[in-house]
Amino acid sequence: MPLHMTKIAYSAESPADLRAWLESHADIGEARLTTRYLPKRHEEMAGGSLYWIYEHALIGRSPILGFEQREDGRWWIRLAPKLIPVVTKPKRAHQGWRYLKEEDAPRDLGDGESSGDIMPPKLARELARLGLV
Question: What is the superkingdom listed in this entry's lineage (predicted)?
């Protein structure tokens, strides 16, 4: 079972904006995020994904292609340039990235399902706060 990561989509104004940013890197075959440190458990992330947090909810994932050190000592998180929608799941905001176990990761949306078939992130967050989800 691969290990995953979570990260806030901090510069995205919407999930569509995040998708557009990722897909704009399709011509080079990967999107890259910068991080100061190589995750200690990076070897467990082979086959894993980075799950994106938007408005306090996990909304999609991008497969992790690997990690690469930059010349300045920082690291790139190399991602497939696509956003795979997942069933919205409440997730508190945090700085940087965090690990996410396979059993805690939301499932991908199936064929014929759309993000409109699931709760909006704000509603999911409020219901979780109330202990109803």
Answer: Bacteria
Question: For residue 49, which of 85, 90, 6 has the smallest C-alpha distance?
Answer: 6
Alpha carbon dihedral 32, 50, 55, 75, in 10-degree steps, equals: -40
Expressed as residue numbers, the domain containing 39 is 4-129
pLDDT digits (tens, 9 = 90+) for 37-84: 999 999 999 899 999 999 889 999 999 999 999 999 999 999 999 999
CB 105 within 8 A of CB 3: no
| pLDDT for 123 | 74
Total domains present in the chain: 1
